[in-house]
Amino acid sequence: MESNKPFGLWSATFLVVANMIGAGVFTTSGFSFADLGDRQYVMLAWLIGSGIAICGAISYGQLAQRITESGGEYLFLSRLVHPAAGFIAGWVSLLAGFTGAIAFAATAFESYAVPDAIRPGWLQPGMVGIATILLFGILHSATLKTGVLTQNIVVGLKLALLAGFVGFAFFQYPSGWQGMQIQTEDAEFSIYAIASTLVWISLSFSGFNAAVYVTGEVDNPKTNVPRALLLGTLITTAFYLLLNFVFLYAAPPEQIRNVQDIAAVASQSLGGNSLATLIRVIVSVALLSSVSSMIIAGPRVYAKMADDGVFPKLFNTPTNRLQNVPATAIWLQVICAVTVVYFSTLVSLLDYLSFTLSVSAAITVACLLWTRRDNDTVAKRFIYCSIAALYIAATFTLAILSTVDKPEKLTAFALTIVSGLALYFLVNKKTKTSAG
Q1: With CB atoms 3.0 to 4.6 Å apart as the test, which of 49, 114, 256, 270 could cross-link to 201 if both were Cys?
Q2: In CATH, what number is assigned to the domain containing residue 114?
Q3: Quick check: is 435 in a domain?
């Protein structure tokens, strides 16, 4: 019997890949090379970041097996800790998580697709980003199957372009790689420098948990959601390691050190202007898929909150009842993201996001340490708790390190928690009054 749920294993996997592969992998390693001083250490940092993300994906997969509904951190924390904890997680998603991330991806897409050098005078900054958000809002609020199909096509194109770029690069290996012929100076290994670099690398791996936001719409979720999380993270890891090897070794070291556009520099060295143009296209497509995937995932959180009565019921009212698309929640997300694109520079917001969302994820994974399933053996529970503990320890360490030179992140985080708690008790009081 054919399932009427729109997300199969590969659709859910593509959602994870789309959330993870954005601008970060194409821009981070030039700065990491400047900080670490050795390309091998940069590759080591990406390998460690991959391991942390894989631990997170496995842990979230275990949580998805316990609770097979859509809603992500809001749902897990509401059911396994306290409704207030879940509400704050949902508040973080609405206030910053998806809204800020969508706005950033849309703005970055505009900067790659329509750089200042070719922007016509009548096209105001932000308009392309806003149009992109509106377009995917229309697609994903119309019919879910159309939205999922569009998402799969964009992600498939992204992976094909990435595979083509990597294949072309390695076809020229090693003679066409100028950087392979040059040895960099030995740099002193520093745990602190590696950890500091991982703070930025970890942003490129955020999104490994994307499938848990649509768990209730995945066919056979107890099996397919954990597999999608792990498979999507492994696919992304493979591309990240291959891409960074190309970026770090294809061009001479002095050309990529402390350079933001490391992907373009490496491409120029390998294939001239044509390959540099291809990288610009690849980044644009990657960012498009990020915008699309987050407009799918984020509204499922607000719809679940509305279904639980801690958010206005309006946001769980589908316009397409046959497919149960949470259209009002999608348009709430679209309006919030468009507002941020229009009014914000996003730089300070991104620093805030990296801390707040990582802490929220670590707290969510911690639920595994005190919950268990009836069929868990002692050995299985020990393995999964160890993986969860490793993810929690690494994530909290990186979050704390990120506040060393920017303590204002803690203030912003505290304000988020306080405002979320205040809103929760206000909503809860009104609900009890209405019920009375």
Answers
A1: 49
A2: 1.20.1740.10
A3: no
